[in-house]
Design goal:
extended
Length: 117
């Protein structure tokens, strides 16, 4: 067999190395994601425990705790930038063509005409 003849099995050294490195990269990314999720869960539970303790000691009222949680949620939602995959799934809302066609008054409640024997 000459050196110029191709190997019928293909490059044996390259394929396993490439697959192993790709697998390692995916494994490290998954481990990083798991660590971030654990950290977020820990932070959430710690925050809820602190707020609950402050509420039970009478330092914060239930309304104040709720207000803090809602403010934190709004702040998180406002600063969160979804990934490209998430943004691609949602279509923007279509603008209302004619504002005169938008109903501003409430509909009357439904009337049920039921005859009971």
């Amino acid at each position: 067999m000459t050196q110029d003849a191709p190997n019928p099995a293909g490059p044996t050294d390259q394929a396993p190395t490439d697959q192993a490195s790709e697998r390692d990269i995916r494994l490290k990314a998954a481990q990083q994601h798991d660590a971030e999720v654990r950290e977020a869960q820990y932070t959430r539970k710690l925050t809820l425990a602190i707020l609950s303790t402050l509420q039970h000691k009478g330092i914060l009222s239930a309304g104040e705790v709720d207000a803090l949680l809602m403010a934190a949620r709004r702040s998180t939602d406002a600063s969160f930038a979804p990934s490209v995959a998430v943004r691609a799934e949602f279509q923007p809302l279509e603008p209302v063509a004619d504002p005169k066609k938008v109903r501003h008054e409430q509909r009357p409640p439904p009337v049920f005409d039921i005859q009971i024997d």
